Automatic annotation (TrEMBL):
It holds the Pfam family Glycos_transf_2. Gene3D superfamilies: Spore Coat Polysaccharide Biosynthesis Protein SpsA, Chain A. It comes from the Bacteria. It comes from Peptostreptococcus equinus. Residues 4-128 form the Glycosyltransferase 2-like domain. InterPro entries: Glyco_trans_2-like, Glycosyltransferase_2, Nucleotide-diphossugar_trans. This is Glycosyltransferase family 2 protein. The lineage of its organism: Bacteria, Bacillati, Bacillota, Clostridia, Peptostreptococcales.
Length: 230
């Protein structure tokens, strides 16, 4: 099955090359699309000099957010693509683990497969955000998932094409998960040995988690209202 990977990247010059190195030789990946979302560093130069026949990239001059970057990537999909994978640009060499979420979709075990990271090496205070995300999905769907905020996901193309647009903000994954389950699709979580830039316990880290919490609450309420009216 033709598989395409979409990577939104913002200021990832130090990690995007190793992220691409980790996936470029995976036989089951046929296409890699990177959308540089208005980076102010040298991400663009790294992409322009990267040698890989599978790679296509798009450079945006302005930062428009992850949701818009993913939408651009979807527009660039090869017509043959049957599986679409969302992957973050800061995974480095651990991106090779993406095969663990691709294979269950190829094998028909599920319609969407989500990467569940192992516990972080340092405490980042993410517990309350993850609980809110998990509880919001369970309340509306009756399904318990542990990786509802994970951005590493493999979809059957027909699932991702049901979305008229990709929501922006930190609640995007929670909102999409609720919709996918409400539509009757099967989701599977798989534990992976991926790592990315961890949010610390400094002021900026707490502000980041606060924004995540508020975004998730907002989209959960919106989905409750939306699906309650159907």
């Amino acid at each position: 099955m033709f598989t395409s990977v979409i990577i939104p990247a913002y200021n990832e010059e130090s990690r995007i090359k190793s992220t691409l190195d980790g996936i470029k030789d995976i036989e089951k990946i046929d296409e890699i699309i990177v959308v540089d979302d208005g980076s102010s560093d040298n991400t663009k130069k790294v992409l322009e000099s990267y040698n890989c026949e599978k790679l296509k990239f798009h450079i945006q001059n302005l930062n428009k957010g992850k949701g818009r970057a993913l939408e651009i990537g979807l527009k660039m999909l090869d017509s043959r693509a049957e599986i679409v994978v969302f992957l973050d640009g800061d995974l480095g060499s651990t991106s090779v683990e993406v095969i663990k979420i691709i294979e269950p979709v190829i094998n028909g075990e599920c319609d969407v497969c989500i990467a569940q990271f192992r516990p972080a090496s340092k405490k980042g205070g993410m517990g309350f955000v993850k609980r809110l995300a998990r509880d919001s999905v369970y309340k509306q769907t009756g399904v318990i998932l542990n990786a509802t905020i994970s951005g590493q996901r493999a979809f059957k193309r027909q699932v991702i094409e049901k979305f008229e647009s990709i929501p922006d903000g930190y609640g995007v994954e929670v909102g999409m998960t609720i919709d996918i389950l409400k539509w009757g699709y099967r989701i599977k979580e798989v534990i992976v040995d991926m790592t990315h830039n961890e949010t610390g316990r400094d002021l900026s880290g707490f502000i980041h988690r606060g924004k995540q919490y508020l975004h998730i609450r907002k989209i959960a309420k919106a989905k409750e209202k939306e699906w309650g009216n159907k």
